[in-house]
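[Automated response] Your request has been received and processed.

Submitted sequence:
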Amino acid sequence: MARQLKPVAAPVAEVSARLDEAQEREAARDRALRASVTKQVQPLTVALVAAIERSDAQMAEFRARLDAPRSPPSPAAGRRRRRP
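Generated structure:
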């Protein structure tokens, strides 16, 4: 039985080495893709945060205007002119 396994050991080792190499290449490719995506997404994230901050500031300004006490209407504002 041992004699039959010896001729197979070398091809199995070669397949194993090729599999290891393929896994290394795949891991390197995965790292490169992650780095590329991160590099592309970071400026978009910064722009999005800035837009959200501007929007929050505008909303705060709108709320302040709405909540500000209003002056009482002038007496002339409520009167309508009658046509003769």
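Summary generated for your ticket: The longest helix spans residues 2-67. The two ends are 123 Å apart (CA to CA).
If you did not submit this request, please reply to this message.
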